[in-house]
Amino acid sequence: MSWDVIRVVAITFVVAGHVTGGAALIPDIEPYPVSLRVPFGTFTLLVLSGYFMGPTLRKLRPGRWLHSRLARVLPAYLVAMLVTFLVLRIVAPVFNGEEEGPWYLPGAGDLVRNLLLVHEWTGNMHRRIDASYWTLPVQVAAFCGVALLCWYWRRRWRHRLQPAVVVWGVIGVSAASPVLSGVAQVVPTATGLYFAHLFAAGAAIWLWSQRRLAGPNLAAVLAAVLGMQLFRSSEPQWLIVACLGAMLGLMCLAARGPDWDRVLGLLRRPISWLAGISFGIYLVHQKLGYVVARVLTGMEIEPWWLRMALVLTAIVLAAWALTVLVERPLYRLLGPSAQPAPAAGVRPADIADIADVADVTDATEVTGTGDRSRDSAGDGAHDAPDDTPGDGVVRTRG
Fold first, then answer.
1. pLDDT per residue over 244-266, tens digit each?
2. What DSSP assignment string belongs to 205-242?
3. What is the Cα–Cα distance from 220 to 225, expressed in whole angstroms?
4. Pick from 164, 255, 279, 371: most CB atoms within 10 A?
5. What is the pLDDT of residues 23-56, one digit of tens each?
6. What's this model's pTM, rounded to 2 decimal places?
7. CA-to-CA distance for 189 and 194, rounded, in angstroms?
8. How many degrees, rounded to 5, is the angle at CA 116 between CA 112 and CA 117?
9. Terminal C-alpha separation, the chain
């Protein structure tokens, strides 16, 4: 239950930032009197994804593991993206009216780029089907990179390099990635290298939980990761980094401490249920949530808390439908046919991928997307909500 709690907290802050804060940036959506924009949720989901790469890779060949990851993430993303595209094609002209309005009308080019997961290469955050989808190419790049690294490790490096060396190497690559902006500004973020340290942090926590990484080394890794997050924005975002640090601390407690069901036992079922649909929540909450908010504003639904409750209800119901009707059945259809027995000490729930970005994901917590907190960004033609990547690689994403 510990990991479900962490995932639910992360996806809650992602959704809250967009529903209460991001929607206020869209001119024709009535803002709420409360706003909770502390963008660290998506970063947390990426760290979770890095953590659970460890137990899932232990018993699977790299190719089979990659197959499993892609079968879990891509079908739900593609369906959610196509639905969002079609909805925007219908409602954007209505919302904008005769004049050019704030709602971006995606075209065939946007659809193709999102299908091929190259939408981050445009560098234009004001023209997106859904700005939260920045985490999907990052996730897929991480999956491919880890599978390749694991394959090579098992053949060449197993007896030459300690896992800690690999973790620090990944952090070093991430730290140096802004240099690639000299080739093209979007290269560090579009390739996912800019966020590799978050996956490394998750892997380090897992290695520590298996007694394969010393405590001081883990502390140094997490300090380095938080330091990179702090200084990757034009102004240090102390609150965001402090919240991310608190989440990393909770992950360490969950990794080597007792399960939290003794404290939160009465909430086990709702928490587990929300965690199970968290990837779907990540995929549908932002742009489709804005559409629902815009419709309710047009209907003059009052008071504000009723509008917010209806938006959140619509998001949860859509996420549940996406999970039950798309993600789970297509994973059973497209995923690996046989499941190996879990290793000793690894819970079956972990092997079943408690945490993808998206299993979030979540995408996911995607996912969808932790946290790129930017100085500014864009969703559609608006300033981007917190965890939408900005045009500059020096911005914090979350």
1. 999 999 999 999 988 887 777 78
2. HHHHHTT-S-HHHHHHHHHHHHHHHHTSSSS--HHHHH
3. 9
4. 279
5. 778 888 998 988 888 889 999 999 999 999 988 8
6. 0.83
7. 5
8. 115
9. 24
